[in-house]
Task: structure prediction
Amino acid sequence: EAGVAQSPRYKIIEKRQSVAFWCNPISGHATLYWYQQILGQGPKLLIQFQNNGVVDDSQLPKDRFSAERLKGVDSTLKIQPAKLEDSAVYLCASSLRAAGATTEAFFGQGTRLTVV
Amino acid sequence: KNEVEQSPQNLTAQEGEFITINCSYSVGISALHWLQQHPGGGIVSLFMLSSGKKKHGRLIATINIQEKHSSLHITASHPRDSAVYICAVRERGGADGLTFGKGTHLIIQP
Result:
């Protein structure tokens, strides 16, 4: 079974530039998550999609971050403009998530963003 | 909002030692995950628990719902077990994004 695919693996940009990350979840997984992991900390949820609808984006800095999941499959996370403090690993995860059930989440390899 | 605390933050041990990593949380949960993260790598899910105990190879995970506490044990530790181990919880009744601990950095020396 193919896992969660993310690209690119690494990205270095200057502050105030824009960047986009891509995630392809496991086939059939309705729920998709984007997490931000700053060095030395645990991941923090940015946004959760159920199919193509947003379930939770309470911790997404909406002035500069945006995410979409058109057609309920692939997702993109964009930062515009980037700040130095956005340097982190951005992790995508997906889960099967039946209604009312707790299912395991599977993680991608992450995209390591460095803002200089 | 759940507070997830892990201990220790860093652990260095000799090959063959029995390892215990602890996790405590503050609010009732529907599930607790133990995850493994290698340097530069993604996260691998080791266990998902809602009660009791699970075992997979040399790894054992336990959870005490009443005490809001979980432990991850590694028996006969090996240098390839060196990684960051992260505890994450899903709150009961909430949106099911995970709340993560800061992780335990484990180094097993040969």
